[in-house]
């Protein structure tokens, strides 16, 4: 079977609808970025104190984990286009491992904060921290579900080739989850 | 080794990891005002976002309308975010 390319399958990698959905979701997060930046600009001491309680190692680790899982996902899409079923399945599993690791690290981080007495109603900084990263974590969970669907629903090379649009769509969603975290990590954990 | 070098996705990953390290290191190594440092880190974040869009999400292979939309989003959101941060 000949390897597929986005040009052969459709005009774009994945369907237009998924791009529109991703754009919509990114616009929602853009509002979050601006709300956070606005809060930081107006209450610099509160945000500095709150940021000082965060552990950059957790945030940094999660950034590295998601970037690597994005690499695996992009590679999985290539494998599917080449009808390499075993390689596709392995790469999907590695992508899921990245997502699971992110989830565990995030839960551990939340637990640490709550144990230290901080929660979503502590102040504006923690409201933004918990709600924005929590909403992102929800996206990770949905992505994990989509990846599970790919892993369980594609059993042979023909299926992999036939569902390439769906695979590309899930890939786009997962990369969106990654790129949103990249900005969230920088804004919340790093920006002084 | 050659196969690794030909893996453009792997190169993209290394670039992204390198930019992440640069953001982190700039906090401790660069002697600049918080505003300049913060704007630099936000700009780096959106550069990484664009790299993910172009190379992982294959935006370069999408239609011109989709590509322009997401490029415009990246520039506009980065600019507005930095502007609000600097208020």
Structure characterization notes:
The complex is a heterodimer of chains A (192) and B (87). In chain A, α6 runs antiparallel to α8. Chain A is elongated and about 60 Å long. Chain A is mainly α. Chain A contains 8 helices and no strands. The mean pLDDT of chain A is 93. Chain B contains 4 helices and no strands. In chain B, α2 packs antiparallel against α3. Chain B has 87 residues and is mainly α. The mean pLDDT of chain B is 92.
- Percent of residues in helices of chain B comes to over 70%
Radius of gyration of chain A: 19 Å
Number of helices of chain B: 4
The H/E string of chain B reads HHHH
Major sheet of chain A: none
The backbone outline of chain A, from C-alpha atoms, is: elongated
**Span between N and C termini of chain B?**
49 Å
Task: Let me know the average pLDDT of chain A.
Answer: 93
Which pair has the most extensive contact?
Answer: A-B, 44 and 40 residues
SSE layout and pairing:
The complex is a heterodimer of chains A (192) and B (87).
Chain A: H1 6-9, H2 16-42, H3 44-52, H4 56-81, H5 85-115, H6 124-153, H7 157-162, H8 164-190
Chain B: H1 2-6, H2 8-29, H3 34-56, H4 64-85
Helix pairs in contact in B: 2-3, 3-4
């Amino acid at each position: 079977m000949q390897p597929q390319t986005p040009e052969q399958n459709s005009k774009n990698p994945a369907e237009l609808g998924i791009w529109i959905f991703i754009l919509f979701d990114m616009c929602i997060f853009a509002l979050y970025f601006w709300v956070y930046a606005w809060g930081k600009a107006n209450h610099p001491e509160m945000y500095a104190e709150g940021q000082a309680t965060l552990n950059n190692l957790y945030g940094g680790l999660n950034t590295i984990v998601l970037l690597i899982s994005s690499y695996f996902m992009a590679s999985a899409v290539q494998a599917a286009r080449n009808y390499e079923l075993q390689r596709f399945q392995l790469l999907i599993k590695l992508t899921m491992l990245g997502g699971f690791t992110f989830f565990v690290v995030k839960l551990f981080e939340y637990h640490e904060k709550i144990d230290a007495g901080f929660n979503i109603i502590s102040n504006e900084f923690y409201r933004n921290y918990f709600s924005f990263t929590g909403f992102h974590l929800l996206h990770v969970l949905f992505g994990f579900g989509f990846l599970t669907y790919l892993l369980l629903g594609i059993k042979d090379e023909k299926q992999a080739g036939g569902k390439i649009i769906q695979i590309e769509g899930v890939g786009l969603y997962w990369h969106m989850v990654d790129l949103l975290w990249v900005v969230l990590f920088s804004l919340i954990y790093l920006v002084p | 080794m050659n196969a690794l070098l030909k893996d453009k996705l792997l190169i993209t990953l290394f670039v992204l990891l390198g930019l992440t390290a640069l953001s982190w290191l700039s906090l401790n190594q660069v002697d600049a005002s918080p505003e300049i440092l913060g704007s630099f880190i936000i700009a780096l974040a959106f550069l990484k976002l664009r790299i993910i869009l172009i190379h992982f999400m294959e935006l370069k292979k999408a239609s011109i309308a989709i590509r322009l939309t997401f490029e415009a989003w990246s520039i506009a959101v980065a600019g507005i975010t930095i502007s609000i941060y600097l208020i």
